[in-house]
């Protein structure tokens, strides 16, 4: 009996030490879009530095589809031990239960770790579309019998909801007008941008990134920026507020890392510190800057508050547009 008690007293600290070891294996960053987009690029840039900080390989896994819920379910299928992270642009997973039948996860099933960057969101049209402002786009939509074709990355995606926000604001502010739109879903930003370039769709909401900038004035035309101030690289493009829609000026896309609920607080703190260190690296900052992202670290507490505020605003848009189809 004494031997058994002694063995237990020795084994317990060892088990606790093993439990606290983190990371003990490679870390995976799940991205809810196909490879090649700005979020995928961000994940890969940060993964390189994060691997050095954590002394473990960091792998990027693309899991696109179904309003980010494929990626969210991939996170849910992994143990809540901090070795699997979800990187998203915005907090689509916080309201997807209203849009995707059978998806039950809600905002409290996720633990935000940090915001590492923001990406300005812009309205763009195919170069052949005769519109240089949102007002002209609304008028052009009324000339098309089938309505304006508008690409999204899926029903209830961030760009779809920003479209619905604009549509509701047009209705409120200009009762004599209508914004006739047909949303066209694509499986990621890269195919959506390709469709816009070819003229398969008339317009899109896209993140402002290097690939978009290079096309402006050639294959596409940027007509508005959803931000409080104009983008320095395209100073001729007015903000949504300058065009009469200040309600949309806070629609920048925060780039957020999260883990699954149940992840130990000490692991969350270690990941937060590792991401903060990664985002202080000059090479990481320059690579994101060069891609026209806005790198900037915000810790878990402030990120969590921003996420909850954004999700509450988005839920109002979903219900106002009668998109709540989940049973």
How are the secondary structure elements laid out?
Blueprint: H1 2-20, E1 27-31, H2 38-54, E2 58-62, H3 69-77, E3 84-89, E4 110-119, E5 121-126, H4 134-141, E6 148-152, H5 158-173, E7 181-185, H6 189-198, E8 203-207, H7 210-215, E9 220-226, E10 253-260, H8 265-278, H9 282-290, E11 294-298, H10 300-320
Parallel strand pairs: 1-2, 1-3, 6-7, 6-8
Antiparallel strand pairs: 3-10, 4-10, 4-11, 5-8, 5-9
Helix pairs in contact: 2-8, 5-10
- Poorly predicted tracts of residues: 1-18
What's the gyration radius in Å? Answer: 22 Å
CATH fold name of the largest domain: D-Maltodextrin-Binding Protein, domain 2
H-E string: HEHEHEEEHEHEHEHEEHHEH
What proportion strand?
15-25%
> Biggest β-sheet: count, sense, barrel?
6 strands, mixed
CATH class type of the largest domain: Alpha Beta
State the shape: globular
Write up this protein.
- This protein is of the alpha/beta class.
- The protein has 2 domains: 25-119 and 252-320, Bordetella uptake gene, domain 1 (D-Maltodextrin-Binding Protein, domain 2, 3-Layer(aba) Sandwich), CATH 3.40.190.150; 121-248, Periplasmic binding protein-like II (D-Maltodextrin-Binding Protein, domain 2).
- It is built from 10 helices and 11 strands.
- The protein has a 6-stranded mixed beta sheet, with helices on both faces. Strands 7-6-8-5-9 form a 5-stranded mixed beta sheet, with helices on both faces.
- Helix 5 (158-173) packs across helix 10 (300-320).
- The chain is globular, with a radius of gyration of 22 Å.
- The chain starts with a helix and ends in a 7-residue tail after the last helix.
């Amino acid at each position: 009996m004494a031997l058994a008690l002694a063995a237990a007293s020795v084994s317990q600290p060892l088990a606790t030490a093993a439990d606290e070891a983190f990371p003990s294996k490679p870390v995976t960053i799940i991205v809810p879009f196909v490879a090649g987009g700005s979020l995928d690029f961000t994940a890969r840039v940060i993964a390189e530095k994060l691997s050095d900080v954590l002394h473990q390989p960091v792998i990027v896994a693309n899991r696109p589809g179904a309003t980010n819920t494929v990626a969210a379910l991939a996170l849910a299928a992994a143990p809540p031990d901090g070795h699997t992270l979800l990187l998203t642009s915005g907090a689509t997973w916080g309201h997807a239960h209203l849009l995707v039948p059978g998806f039950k996860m809600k905002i409290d099933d996720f633990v935000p770790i940090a915001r590492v960057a923001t990406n300005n969101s812009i309205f763009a049209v195919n170069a052949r579309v005769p519109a240089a402002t949102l007002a002209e786009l609304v008028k052009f939509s009324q000339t098309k019998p089938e309505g304006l074709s508008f690409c999204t990355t899926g029903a209830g995606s961030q760009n779809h909801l920003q479209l619905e926000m604009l549509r509701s604001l047009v209705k409120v502010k200009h009762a004599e007008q209508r914004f006739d739109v047909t949303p066209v879903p694509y499986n990621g930003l890269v195919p959506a941008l390709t469709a816009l370039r070819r003229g398969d769709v008339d317009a899109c909401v896209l993140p402002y990134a290097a690939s978009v900038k290079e096309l402006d004035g050639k294959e596409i035309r940027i007509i508005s920026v959803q931000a409080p101030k104009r983008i320095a690289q395209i100073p001729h493009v007015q903000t949504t507020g300058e065009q009469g829609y200040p309600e949309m000026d806070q629609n920048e896309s925060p780039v957020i890392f999260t883990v699954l609920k149940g992840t130990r607080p000490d692991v969350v703190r270690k990941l937060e510190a590792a991401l903060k260190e990664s985002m202080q690296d000059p090479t990481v900052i320059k690579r994101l800057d060069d891609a026209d992202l806005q790198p900037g670290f915000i810790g878990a507490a402030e990120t969590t508050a921003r996420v909850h505020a954004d999700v509450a605003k988005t839920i109002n848009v979903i219900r106002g547009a009668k998109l709540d189809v989940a049973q």
